[in-house]
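Repro:
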Amino acid sequence: MDWKSLPAFLAVARTGSLRAGAEQMDGTHATVRRQIEGLEAQLGTTLFRRAAGGLTLTAAGRRFLPQALEAETALLKGFNAIKGLDREASGRIRLSADPLTAHYLLAPVLADFASLYPEIEIELKLSYMIDSIEKDETDISIRHVLEVEEDAVGRKLFPLSIGVFASRSYIDTELPKAGSKGTGLNWIGYGEAPELKKMIADTPFSNARIRHTVADPEMHLHLARAGAGMTLLANWAPSVFPELQRVPGTQLDRRRSTWILLHGGLRRVRRARLLVDYLYASLLERRADFIGQ
């Protein structure tokens, strides 16, 4: 059944004319007439007859009216229930982020948010792969990317700086002994990742040996803290682990930016807006840690 015709039928039944029914619906006379005619064609019967005072229901129309009113009540109840949910700070929201950001920056933020809004449930998905918003794999995503390629509502926070880091003890003991372009030093490498290899080659330590190959960025963090060598990390790492230090003579790569992305269909859903606003404000407080000097 074409449900667009139901309001037209009820409006005409209540007012007794096409014109008055159209005014009640904020529509046009012609549109209401077409919807009534379409409904009659679907049902295979005439619902209204013309009389001196306007339009009156036929026997079929009078029989159809109670069912139409019942359907209208059910639809309005459903609409109001959904609108009520969107006004409330309750329900589940899916959030995706990379594990490193989530473990060391988001955990306390999400704990505070959960305390403020006890009826909102967060389903947190951690992966270095990007969950697609367009394919409905997540509702909200925190990403550190060169550019956003998906159709989503986005808030760009700030550049994410990536630098060369090592433990203070490694820098103090090994850097003074290094030869030309870092000969004698060690890199903790990410494997066959061309972009990261190029970033290493562009540093003043291109002759340092890529001694270790580790795919997990969090393990890079811990190996560097333990003195295993130099690695590429987000600039916020020393704010959490002060034993890390940026290696002297290196520059920060600021090509990526941190984004909070939201599924377009959730823009008016209150629980989604609350979480996006809270994440935005909380991460913005760490702006200096992300950007660096």
